[in-house]
Design goal:
The chain is an alpha/beta fold and about 200 residues long. It folds into two domains: about 130 residues, Response regulator (Rossmann fold, 3-Layer(aba) Sandwich); about 55 residues, Arc Repressor Mutant, subunit A (Orthogonal Bundle). The chain is about 50% helix and about 15% strand. The protein is built from ten helices and six strands. Strands 2-1-3-4-5-6 form a six-stranded parallel sheet, with helices on both faces. Helix 8 crosses helix 9. InterPro entries: CheY-like_superfamily, Sig_transdc_resp-reg_C-effctor, Sig_transdc_resp-reg_receiver, Tscrpt_reg_LuxR_C, WalR-like. This is Transcriptional regulatory protein DesR. It comes from Streptomyces malaysiensis.
């Protein structure tokens, strides 16, 4: 019996996933919840075989939870189920030791087969997404430019970012200008949007 934990913030979709998997004689849903903050404590308590996680969750996003699960509950393999089919998200998922990456419009059979394969230690990646990731060029920003852009995405101004990173305000502005230029963006808000859509933030 493959024991599955599901974290998905859309109530109707989560309940549909649970109902779907309950039809499978060899899969048991041991927990389901809408918030990423519940993933680690519940996984530690229940020791599921597979955690099926959405990427965008309140409390803690699915990719952060997947990375932490790989250390805290190493026997629990993770599978991302997402509507965000971006190559950057796939690369981040692989870096977080995710075993499976499927889009939410996958067929029910594909989902249950993927859960069984992931439970056996196999890796399951949506083939179209894998091809897109191979075709996608490397992201152009330096680690520092990305870091500054991440803080800006949280609503921090140049002064706050400078204080957190022990940089001058001018240096922070230079990093933001450089990021805007490299991404061919109109301004920093546009740069944040481009980086988010590419899955780099």
């Amino acid at each position: 019996m493959v024991r599955v934990l599901i974290a998905e913030d859309m109530h109707m979709l989560r309940k549909a996933l649970v109902a779907l998997l309950e039809f499978e004689p060899d899969i048991e849903v041991v927990a389901e919840f809408p918030d990423g903050a519940d993933i680690l404590p519940r996984a530690r308590e229940l020791r599921p075989d597979v955690a099926v996680l959405d990427i965008d969750l309140p409390g803690m996003d699915g990719l952060t939870a997947a990375a932490e699960l790989s250390t805290a509950v190493p026997e629990c393999r993770t599978m991302m189920l997402t509507s965000l089919g971006r190559p950057g998200n796939l690369r981040r998922a692989l870096a977080a030791h995710v075993s499976g990456f499927l889009l939410k419009d996958s067929s029910p059979e594909k989902l249950s087969d993927a859960i069984r394969a992931v439970a056996k230690g196999e890796r399951v990646i949506d083939p179209q997404l894998a091809l897109a990731a191979l075709d996608d060029g490397p992201q152009p920003l330096t680690p520092r430019e990305l870091e500054v852009l991440r803080f800006a995405a949280k609503g921090e101004d140049s002064g706050q970012i400078a204080a957190k990173l022990f940089l001058s305000v001018g240096t922070v502005r230079n990093y933001l200008t450089s990021a805007v230029t490299k991404l061919d963006a109109r301004n920093r808000v546009d740069a944040i949007r481009i980086a988010r859509e590419a899955g780099w933030l």
